[in-house]
Specification:
By secondary structure, the protein is mainly α. The chain is built from ten helices and three strands. The protein starts with a strand and ends with a helix.
């Protein structure tokens, strides 16, 4: 779920932009470019994934001018590249949407918050739960992170968008239409979870070392 027109109060757009900017600053503080510079294959994978996500975001459902529904793939980016690079991918994808004229500049921060910061945070929490608390089992990682975590991240992103509109919608009708859109979340959640889980399964079978959050020695070699 992304905003396509400014229907939120200016103060809320500013707050969302500051939160997104602060999160990007924390991501850059991790110096993710060091891994990219050290691994040319990772550069190609990350750039290709970012471009693919940007193109897939063009496939969207839009019944009103200011709100769109689309698959995010943020959970998959987080699992494959970890949070800092996933956030940078979301930033580039949202910038591309602005440059292409699909959304307005003032919405960059709030869209990055909804499609990037919130789902990345949820996926990091789910991954840490799997990494520290659950058994070292390939299927546990796949189903809890790939399917359940993705569904939860999608739900959190949708609810965050609705919550932002509840806090600062500029028109009472906006909130009513947002609640109507929220009814589609149960359809988006399994769709995103299935696609993410399927792609993650393929990567874990053929290229487990490409998934940065997955330790093949821990989950496979020691079994």
């Amino acid at each position: 779920m992304s905003f396509a027109a400014p229907v939120l109060s200016p103060w809320l757009l500013l707050v969302a932009s500051l939160v997104s900017l602060g999160t990007i600053g924390l991501a850059l503080a991790q110096r993710p470019w060091r891994a990219l510079l050290a691994d040319h294959a990772l550069q190609h994978r990350w750039l290709a994934a970012t471009l693919a996500v940007t193109l897939l975001w063009q496939l969207r459902a839009q019944a009103v001018d200011w709100l769109t529904l689309h698959l995010m793939f943020t959970a998959l980016l987080t699992l494959v590249f970890k949070a800092p690079l996933a956030l940078l991918s979301c930033l580039l994808a949202n910038l591309a949407m602005v440059v292409l004229g699909r959304v307005a500049w003032p919405l960059l921060g709030v869209n990055l918050l909804v499609t990037g910061v919130v789902p990345v945070l949820v996926m990091v929490l789910v991954w840490r739960l799997v990494d520290r608390r659950l058994p070292d089992n390939l299927m546990v990682f796949l189903f809890v992170c790939g399917f359940f975590g993705t569904a939860l991240a999608t739900l959190a992103a949708g609810l965050s968008a609705v919550g932002l509109m509840a806090l600062g919608a500029s028109d009472p009708e906006v909130m009513h239409q947002a609640l109507e859109y929220a009814r589609f979340l149960p359809l988006l959640m399994p769709s995103e979870a299935f696609i993410t889980g399927m792609l993650l399964s393929i990567l874990l079978v053929y290229h487990p070392r490409w998934v940065a959050t997955f330790n093949d020695h821990r989950y496979i070699d020691t079994k």
